[in-house]
Structures are given as C-alpha cells and as structure tokens.
Write a structure and sequence with these properties.
The protein is mainly α. Helices cover 72% and strands 0% of the residues.
Length: 137
C-alpha cells in the first residue's frame, strides 16, 4: 500500500491539536524546543530540516518523515539535497535506513509535486527510474 504523505500530515495535524488540548504543558514545551532548534543561527533552517529528515529515517519514524519532508520542500530543499541527506541517513543507519530512505524520498516527491502542481508518480525519480526494491539492494 502506497503512503499518501500529504494526507498523513493533515491527519497527524488533527491528532496533534487534540494532544495540545489533552497535554497542553507538554505540547507547549515541545513546540518551544522545536522553535528554538529551528532558529537559523550558524545552520540555516533548510539545513536543519534536512538533518531532521535524516534522523527521521535513521529512527524509522514515518510521521516524522512526513513532517520533515514537507518542511524540507517548504524551505526550498532540492531533490539533490534530499538525496545526499538520505545517503547520510543510510550510512548512519545501515539497511533499515536504506528502506526508510525510500519513504522519505517518496514523501519529498509528493510534497514537491503538490507544490508545483505536478501529478507525476512519486515512485519515478527525476530520470523516470522506478523505486529500488528490497531485492535490488
């Protein structure tokens, strides 16, 4: 089953709003941490979102992948920057990260296509190649 990453972020957003109502102090503190971490200082926000995307892959968090792939698109990350980021995630996380890197690439592609109005299949890369299956790794 193919994941609809934009729909996932929408659904998660609703659940996170519910969490803010049920655990307001914790969620407010989490939001403050996120805002502080994302402030551009030596690293710009795009770089920080790419780091967050790599960590999302390494810890195998689909929900995190969804949010940080969208944020990477919103911050202007290119496909090449995402691919290099995913390479680092695979390097640090080995085989499981290679599998989750395909999730992050698919999420990035769906958000990028939505931003540009492209309806291309997210499984096809910039050169039209198909996703790598586990048997090909």
């Amino acid at each position: 089953m193919k994941t609809d990453w934009p729909a996932m972020t929408k659904d998660l957003g609703a659940m996170l709003r519910e969490m803010r109502g049920g655990a307001p102090d914790v969620m407010k503190a989490f939001s403050a941490i996120a805002q502080a971490a994302l402030q551009p200082r030596v690293l710009d926000t795009k770089t920080k979102e790419l780091i967050a995307l790599a960590i999302s892959v390494a810890v195998r968090c689909d929900d995190c992948i969804a949010f940080h792939a969208k944020a990477a698109v919103d911050q202007g990350a290119s496909r090449d920057e995402v691919m290099e980021t995913l390479g680092m995630a695979i390097y640090m996380g080995a085989g499981p990260s290679a599998m989750y890197a395909t999730h992050a690439l698919d999420a990035y592609t769906q958000f990028a296509n939505a931003k540009t109005g492209t309806k291309a299949d997210a499984a096809a890369g910039a050169n039209g190649s198909a996703n790598v299956s586990a048997q090909n790794v």
